[in-house]
Input
Amino acid sequence: MSHKTIALSLAALCVVLSVILVVMGVTMAGWGRSAEPAPDAGGQQAEEEPAAPVSAATEEPSVTPGEASTPAPTATPVPTEEPWSGPDVPAQSTEAGASYFADAGFLGNSVLSGLWYYDGDNLLPDDSFFWSDGLTILGASPYAAQMSGYGKIYVGFGMNELSYEKNTLRQAYNTVLDQLEENNPDAIIYLVSVSPVSLWKSSNDRYITRELVLSFNEMIREIAQERQVWYLDIYNVLSDDDGYLPSDVTNDGVHFTPAHYELWFDYMNTHYIPDGTEAPPADTGAASEGQP
Output
């Protein structure tokens, strides 16, 4: 073989080797790179959307077909108890009238009985008064025992026992109230204040004085509050600006004229507890305080 032939053969071999190396380089380069995403339709390379977060699956409560789920019980609101509004009798917008007093009973002394004597308008029933001259709360039980079925009861004592010991009087009041409430369970009970006395009487009597009247009325109101019955304050209705019974309406400083009783009538007729008012339970614990 000539030198020229050998040279051409070597040159051809070199060309073939070069082509092989080029091809192998391209292939190896493809193996070393990850495939890139294809461009989108607009020629821009599409970005890979992040994967949606995976939330923990909440297990639905299993309900048997045909069964209704039981709702949680709703707490029933507890009614708020109305506070005791007594013991003072409130004024009303209308007069009570004779129909209100048709089932009323009266227990007391001679001062209270004046309502019966001077009832010119026949506002009060004739057979509804239980009283006697000189009667005190200490002797009222036999009278109270006769009273039954009344819708209202007015209890008026004090003038004859102003100087008595208070604990004894409290016990007597509670005894009488127990009787009245037992025999008249639906009755509205009023404790009537002691009426005023004249300046002359208060200045000349050892036991019947304005100061003792005020002290007795304070005790009556306290008993009314404890027993949750009503306190009818006629003292301030019948007294003058100084707290005395006007001298021109009385002959003995204690009892008074029919015209002055009209003030009492008018006050009762406009200060009352309407029928159907439910009486609150008596505070028996408080009522027993101070008793022997």
